[in-house]
């Protein structure tokens, strides 16, 4: 076997993911060399704090620098691996690398979702590869299937659990009947939630991933700002109990779909919110901090991707896969598939997205309540799928599940219901996915 001269890597970031990238590169060096046809060599590692304790990393101390931009600009760098995160200065580094013809591998979902265009444009300008498998769902091979394997098909819908922290919290609420705060506390103690869990529980992390998935699935640039986002902090133990009574559970879902809007214009809807799904749905059984993504395509039908969505080693696995692909391309003089955004589909606002609601009302126990409530739904052109009445007097309840309707009509229905004197309170409102 002939082995070419080394492919030289600049590693930006050596934290949770970066240290595992270094370890895997070291432990699998011989196999990687055989697979690529050239050895991989780290020529520099940019970090924020030079003196930080990094355990027994198999890398020379003198390779560390705080000058990431200087490292990126070096002539002896072929591939830049960015595992720092955040918008700036990461964008400046990566644009510089790509324009200079260097291959870039990044796990930075925030940057890709906010300004992926800057990276794709720079890659086109520099004739460089841009890979980002680790940015969505950690170890799960998902972006390459969307970007390559499914390119002969037409993807119609992507539904995913793409945030492990919130999945752990909701799975724990489902299993134990705990409330949100209690389950969050448990997640924090076990290291599944960060000290500031806002990005996870408010759905920002999932929204960034939804934008990346939708862009790839629908050949259209979708940014985080295009994604409707509702976090899961409002999901109560009562909501979970309601879901369980219906044979369902609650998951924080990212949903990206394409189809005609009311005027018949093909468009894209992308949203992140908690939703009730039946126990029979393939995503209902995804427990703990696991991720899973359900892809529907016209010819392929239904596909399910499942695995670890975060963690240093699983995420490093995805980064290494991209490094191998980029290194092979450099050796053979070929390129990764470039961005495909030819469809330019318009984004449908949440109000025009067709959703279904599950509404739990505390109502007065007297004749005519059901007819009045049903009248409110009819007035807003929302059709009712099922109604369940239970309890007497103070405990009188109505649980209503609708058919699909524009989200704006459903929201207006809930607003009108809240103004009815016979509705004592709206105990819960949840969107519903799957055949409930
Ligand atoms: N952790 C996961 O499970 C996971 C999963 C999927 C994707 N990701 C993505 O991977 C990326 C890295 O995540 P992580 O968890 O590894 O982060 P992390 O543990 O916080 O590590 C960040 C690294 O970046 C370095 N850094 C920060 N600012 C810098 C600057 N201005 N110049 C040079 N280096 C700088 C830090 O240096 P010091 O070491 O000196 O502080 C540290 O080594 C993020 O984009 C994240 O969204 C992470």
UniProtKB/TrEMBL annotation:
Residues 358-434 form the ACT domain. InterPro entries: ACT-like_dom_sf, ACT_dom, Asp/hSer_DH_NAD-bd, HDH, HDH_cat, HDH_CS, NAD(P)-bd_dom_sf. The keyword rRNA-binding does not apply. The keyword Oxidoreductase applies. It catalyses: L-homoserine + NAD(+) = L-aspartate 4-semialdehyde + NADH + H(+); L-homoserine + NADP(+) = L-aspartate 4-semialdehyde + NADPH + H(+). Its EC number is 1.1.1.3. GO terms for molecular function: homoserine dehydrogenase activity. Keywords: Amino-acid biosynthesis, Methionine biosynthesis, NADP, Oxidoreductase, Sodium, Threonine biosynthesis. CDD domains: ACT_HSDH-Hom (cd04881). Pathway: Amino-acid biosynthesis; L-threonine biosynthesis; L-threonine from L-aspartate: step 3/5; Amino-acid biosynthesis; L-methionine biosynthesis via de novo pathway; L-homoserine from L-aspartate: step 3/3. Its cofactor is a metal cation. It is an enzyme of class 1 (oxidoreductase). Belongs to the homoserine dehydrogenase family. Catalyzes the conversion of L-aspartate-beta-semialdehyde (L-Asa) to L-homoserine (L-Hse), the third step in the biosynthesis of threonine and methionine from aspartate. This is Homoserine dehydrogenase. It comes from Paractinoplanes globisporus.
